Amino acid sequence: MQPAHENLLADLRLTLRPGKRQDADNLRTLVGGILQSYGLPDSVARDGDLDDVAVWYGNRHGVFEVLVDSSGALVGCCGVYGCSQTVCELRRLYLAYKVRHRGLGRVLLRRVVDWARARGFETMEMFTASVLKEAVQLYERFGFARQLQTAAGPAACDLHFSLRLRNSGR
Ligand SMILES: CC(C)(COP(=O)(O)OP(=O)(O)OC[C@H]1O[C@@H](n2cnc3c(N)ncnc32)[C@H](O)[C@@H]1OP(=O)(O)O)[C@@H](O)C(=O)NCCC(=O)NCCS
Q1: Does the model's pTM come out above 0.90?
Q2: pLDDT above 70 for 152
Q3: Percent of the chain scored above 90 by pLDDT?
Q4: Domain range holding 147?
Q5: What is the C-alpha separation between 20 and 26, in angstroms, rounded?
Q6: Domain-located, residue 169
Q7: Residue whose CA is closest, atom 23 of ligand 1?
Q8: What is the pLDDT of residue 156?
């Protein structure tokens, strides 16, 4: 039997594949446009990870996937990288508006959590902004716990979440 998420992707005629350097312009457009729509500063140019996701995430013991539709247009992404041997950070979970509310956000999150757990990471961290209400609800329902914000987080991010990957049952 196909895993449930593969059926969902097939029904929506979407494909997940590893991100590559050639995706940079489309990723910047997708992520930058969504940040702008929430009134958030565009962190894309500052962080540099989207310039070459294969190298940036690959060099940091991570992975980055993109979601493309049947015309080849990039409609989503999600990445994770290792901050240490035991701690990883979730980054860049973004979906184009037209593919939201169908369960894909949870699918992408589940994939990176499973990936990180299989590689032996014990904790997944994530920094976000409270105006990203859909994401905040997704993370909390998934089991992420709010942490006290620390100076380590990006300037525009007022929320810090953490998920135990060992013995959390999720
Ligand atoms: C966050 C995001 C990826 C969720 O994707 P999605 O495919 O629409 O989400 P799903 O359909 O998988 O829903 C999963 C959960 O997300 C939350 N959610 C989704 N849409 C929501 C909405 N309009 N309002 C509140 N919560 C919502 C819910 O908790 C939902 O679970 P439920 O159906 O059991 O209530 C998407 O809204 C998005 O790209 N947002 C903008 C980018 C962003 O905020 N990224 C996070 C950066 S840290």
Answers
A1: yes
A2: no
A3: 82
A4: 4-164
A5: 11
A6: no
A7: 134
A8: 78
